[in-house]
Amino acid sequence: MSRKKRKQAKGKSAKPTYECPASRSLARAGQPLAGFVQKAKGALVPKHRRLVKPRVDCSIHLETACAAHQNEGEQIYDYLLVLAADCDAHYVEVHPASSTGTVQEMIHKKKGTAAILGRMGVRPDGTWHWIVPSKGKVCFKASDAYGKRLAAAGIRQPRRAL
Questions:
Q1: How far apart are CA 16 and CA 38, in angstroms?
Q2: 127 Cβ contact list (under 8 Å, min separation 6)
Q3: How do residues 97-145 score in pLDDT, each as one tens digit?
Q4: Average per-residue pLDDT in the chain?
Q5: How many angstroms separate the CA atoms of 72 and 52, rounded?
Q6: Are 82 and 59 in contact (CB under 8 A)?
Q7: Alpha helices of the chain — where are they, by DSSP H?
Q8: In what order do the strands lie in the sheet with 89-94?
Q9: Residue 96 above 90 pLDDT?
Q10: CA dist 162 to 47, 53, 83, Å?
Q11: Smallest Cα–Cα separation from 65: which of 94, 104, 84, 91?
């Protein structure tokens, strides 16, 4: 590699960020998350991309973006997506629903995510989703106590894809 090319490469970041034109949600979110915005499903782990069906304008891997603001033992949702259809924030956690204990864990993750974003100066407005991996089993229904607890916390019922 020539000296000139090395100099140019040195100034570039490993993953270029993307300015999402449709994202009023992320614009309201402010600067703390701006450096982590990826185009379309770019922030999603490859095996999770197929679980998100609608067109995504931009995405953020929250575990990476919020790592510096996370306290010991605090859990956080996986992704923040902005869908092309509505330009709103959609928080997504890909997690099994194989036991009723996972309901409390999901509520805990939502509270942790909201607290971390609050410390960053970001309002955690949006829809909260729980996506179950394809081989996972959902062991409760929306009508039972666990499903009602999830709804009361403002988290959508678990499903196979967004």
A1: 8
A2: 88, 89, 90, 91, 156
A3: 877 778 999 999 999 999 999 888 888 889 999 999 877 778 788 888 9
A4: 82
A5: 30
A6: yes
A7: 3-10, 24-29, 46-49, 62-65, 101-119, 145-152
A8: 38-39, 56-61, 79-83, 89-94, 127-131
A9: no
A10: 14, 6, 10
A11: 91
| Chain position carrying tokens 């992320």 | 26
User: Strands 89-94, 127-131: parallel, antiparallel or unpaired by DSSP?
Assistant: parallel
Q: Could you tell me the two tokens for 140?
A: 């409760």
**Residue 52 and residue 40 in contact, taking contact as beta carbons nearer than 8 Å:** no
Per-residue burial over 87-118, b if 16 or more Cβ lie within 10 Å, else e, is bebbbbbbbebeeeebbeebbebbebbbbbbe
Q: Are 76 and 106 within 8 A, CB to CB?
A: no
Q: Which two tokens stand for residue 157?
A: 């019922």
Query: Which residues, in sequence order, are CB contacts of 23 under 8 Å at separation 6+?
Result: 37, 57, 58, 82, 87
What is the phi/psi pair of residue 16, to 5°?
Answer: -65, 140
Distance CA 115, CA 117 (A): 6
Full-model pTM:
0.80
What sign does the CA torsion over 139, 144, 150, 155 have? positive
